[in-house]
Amino acid sequence: VDIHRPELEHLDQLVVEVQDRTLVGEAARTWPTRYRVKALSAAGDVFYHYYNVVVDAGGIGSPNIPVKNEAAKALIQSQFKKFQKNPLSDIRVLNFGLASKRIDALENPMFPYVGKKILVVGDSVASRDFILWLMRRGPEESYKSSVAQEGRYKEILWIGVDETTVEQWLQKNRLFYSVLAAAIKNGSLKFTGKTYMSDLTASVDYAGDIQSLTVETDYKGKGKESYTGDVVFMGTGYKHEDTVFENLVSKKLLV
C-alpha cells in the first residue's frame, strides 16, 4: 500500500518499471519505501509511486508448448481455443488449467477419459496431480456425479518420467503408494523414461474430429520414439512473460 495514501486505490496507469532500492544504491537513498513503481497515464505522463510491497498479479503466464514444429503448436493452440469457445466440447489436448475448468464445466467430469489411453507429458507436479485425479485420489467433490462403476481410463503413459523417479517420490508420499504401485503392477500406468516431447500430430476423421494423437519424443538426440493415445495432457508448465518484473526477479529473487 502507498504509505502516503494507505486506503485501497486503483491507478488507471500502465506500470512500465519496478525498481528495488537495495539494487539501485545511493541514488535511491531518499526513497520513502523500498520499491518505486514507474507508470504511464493514458496521456503519456510519467508518474512514480512508492510502495513497501509489490505483488505481481499478472497471472501465471501462457502455456509452455515445448515443440518447434509450427503445425504441432497450431494443433495444441487450436484445442485450447476450442475449449475456451465451448467448455463442453470434445478436446483431446489439455493442460492443468483446462483440466480444472473442465471439472467445473461438466457434471460428469470423469466421462471424457473413460476407456481412453492418456499420454501425460512432463514430470511436473501438475502431471502427477492429474494422474492421481484420474485414479480417483483427488478431492471427492471434484468428481461430482461421476461414480467408479462408470469405468475409468484404459491406460496412462507418463512421457518424460522413469519408474525410478516415481518410486523415489512414493517413498516420501506413502499416502498414494498403494494406488500408484497397483497401477504400475497391472500395467495401467507406464513410463517412457527420461525424454522430451518434440512433436505432436493428430489423426482426424472426415469431419475434422480428432481420432487419435501421436507424441514424438527425443532425448538429447539419442533417438526418436512415438506414442499414440486418445488424450494428451500437457504438464509442461507455463511461461511468464512479464518484462516489468523480469529484470527485478532475475537480479534479486532468484539469487
Q: Strand order within the widest sheet? A: 5-12-6-7-8
Q: How many separate helices?
A: 7
Using the alpha-carbon principal axes, give the shape.
elongated
The helix/strand series, from N terminus to C terminus, equals EHEEEHEHEHEHHEEEEEEH
Q: Round the mean pLDDT to the nearest integer and report it.
A: 84
Descriptive account of the structure:
By secondary structure, this protein is an alpha/beta fold. 28% of the residues lie in helices and 26% in strands. The chain has seven helices and 13 strands. Strands 5-12-6-7-8 form a five-stranded parallel beta sheet. A three-stranded antiparallel beta sheet has the order 1-2-3. Strands 9-10-11 form a three-stranded antiparallel beta sheet. It is elongated, with a radius of gyration of 23 Å.
What's the gist of this structure?
This protein is of the alpha/beta class and 255 residues long. The chain has helices at 21-24, 70-85, 96-105, 125-134, 163-172, 177-186, 243-253, and strands at residues 14-20, 35-40, 46-51, 62-63, 93-95, 117-121, 155-159, 189-191, 196-204, 210-218, 224-229, 231-234, 238-239. The strands form four sheets. Strands 5-12-6-7-8 form a five-stranded parallel β-sheet. Strands 1-2-3 form a three-stranded antiparallel β-sheet. Strands 9-10-11 form a three-stranded antiparallel β-sheet.
Task: Outline the fold blueprint.
Layout: E1 14-20, H1 21-24, E2 35-40, E3 46-51, E4 62-63, H2 70-85, E5 93-95, H3 96-105, E6 117-121, H4 125-134, E7 155-159, H5 163-172, H6 177-186, E8 189-191, E9 196-204, E10 210-218, E11 224-229, E12 231-234, E13 238-239, H7 243-253
Parallel strand pairs: 5-12, 6-7, 6-12, 7-8
Antiparallel strand pairs: 1-2, 2-3, 4-13, 9-10, 10-11
